[in-house]
Amino acid sequence: MLTLKKLMARHPGCAFHGSQATATEAWLGEYGKYKTRVVIDSGADITLISHAAVSNLSPKPKVKTGQQINLVQVTRASKISGFITLPIFFDADKDPVKLELEAYVAKGMTTPFILGNDFADQYALSVVRDENGAHLSLGDIGRKIQVENSIGPSLQNKTGHVFQVRTKTGISYLVEKFKNHPRAKKARKSERKKKIENPVRATEECVILPNTMKAVSVTLNFPEKLDIAYVEKLLISNCGEDHFYSSPHYLIIREDCRLRISNFSTFPVKIQKGQILGIRPLSCYMTQFS
């Protein structure tokens, strides 16, 4: 069995100190015109270009509509969907090498250009590290570029938040966390509402003729140890001010669990099974006498 030796020593628990994504420099859009820093092995699924870098290009490439991409940050998840196509040129050890890329435009990203796994895999780009440093091997053409893995800032946006890039099909736990947050908030709100009021629901489907009243069978949670419940008046409208029906303030007893509904409109009203017809407020306390 062989044991690999570390190239750099670190104190216990500090192996990550000084670690940065491997980067080099390349020409964007046109050789010899706009040179910028390019991050090579960030782990991003897709290739990204900052909005500022796109603004510096001349002529400015057209931003096209692409797939919905999740830019996962520590504090929130934002989405980007526009991309550009452009050539990128590397100054290799013998002569320049050109790659045709698609890059999604990310606003607020301080790193000018991130080469993702999408094109790193297609062009068979690989980072080779040894005691002499690190270099980028460009496919099978026998060209390589000297790169550095400890320069510049890490992958951060303008507010200093580190981010990762995942396509929607490879969505991460952090995205799911933020995605589910509104649902959890809605569920908590629903629970609080249940503690405040108790709905009275119809247990049958029926029709109430115009300008008539009908006793509709309902179900509700009676107060503990009581066989009577107070129901508040509820005004219901389906089609506007001239088409409404209502339940009165009413006392319902367990033996005759029905609620009187009056149709004040000139049209028949259909009551659906499970429909809320009244509210029993939990704040109303009652005492039952024998």
UniProtKB/TrEMBL annotation:
<protein>
    <submittedName>
        <fullName>Uncharacterized protein</fullName>
    </submittedName>
</protein>
<dbReference type="GO" id="GO:0004190">
    <property type="term" value="F:aspartic-type endopeptidase activity"/>
</dbReference>
<dbReference type="InterPro" id="IPR001969">
    <property type="entry name" value="Aspartic_peptidase_AS"/>
</dbReference>
<dbReference type="InterPro" id="IPR021109">
    <property type="entry name" value="Peptidase_aspartic_dom_sf"/>
</dbReference>
<keyword id="KW-0645">Protease</keyword>
<keyword id="KW-0378">Hydrolase</keyword>
<keyword id="KW-0064">Aspartyl protease</keyword>
<dbReference type="GO" id="GO:0006508">
    <property type="term" value="P:proteolysis"/>
</dbReference>
